[in-house]
TrEMBL record:
Residues 85-148 form the BZIP domain. It is found in: Nucleus. Residues 110-151 form a coiled coil. PANTHER family: D SITE ALBUMIN PROMOTER BINDING PROTEIN A, THYROTROPH EMBRYONIC FACTOR RELATED. It comes from Etheostoma spectabile. GO terms for molecular function: DNA-binding transcription factor activity, RNA polymerase II-specific; RNA polymerase II cis-regulatory region sequence-specific DNA binding. This is BZIP domain-containing protein. SUPFAM superfamilies: Leucine zipper domain. Residues 1-38 are annotated as: Disordered.
Length: 154
């Protein structure tokens, strides 16, 4: 059969090679992701006085991403007022501080995971687009190659 006419638009980069910068040698060719997290979100996912949380670079372990079981709280023990001595109050203060630290740590981790997930969603969309573009380009290249082979043999 007759070859289908190929559009000779300059978008087909098959013969000269792929456009854009070559991928990084170490295999982590970063795709450009237009991701500007809200500074407030970054603040809520960074530890004050430490390096800011970077959702582009941070990797969570499988363990950190495991869903946490719901833990049944112990029944509240009501302590009668006459038993609330100094020891009781110092333990209450220590426990309240520990509970606050625990809640803050959990919130920080959840915020980090949220910001990282938002970045990964963006990156995933960009990578899918890149794959789609490359598939399209591969189709054009194969088309050119098929034409060449049908004219000149293998």
């Amino acid at each position: 059969g007759r070859a289908v006419p190929q559009d000779q638009s300059p978008t087909s980069t098959c013969p000269p090679g792929p456009s854009g910068p070559p991928p990084a040698v170490n295999g982590s060719s970063d795709v450009m992701v237009n991701f500007d997290p809200d500074p407030a979100d970054l603040a809520l996912s960074s530890v004050p006085g430490q390096e800011a949380f970077d959702p582009r670079r941070h990797r969570f372990s499988d363990e950190e991403l495991k869903p946490q079981p719901m833990i049944k709280k112990a029944r509240k023990m009501l302590v009668p007022n006459e038993q609330k001595d100094d020891k009781y109050w110092s333990r209450r203060v220590k426990n309240n501080e520990a509970a606050k630290r625990s809640r803050d740590a959990r919130r920080l981790k959840e915020n980090q995971i949220s910001v990282r997930a938002a970045f990964l969603e963006r990156e995933n969309a960009a990578l899918r687009q890149e794959v789609a573009d490359m598939r399209k380009e591969l189709g054009r290249c194969r088309n050119i190659l098929n034409k060449y082979e049908s004219r000149h043999g293998d």
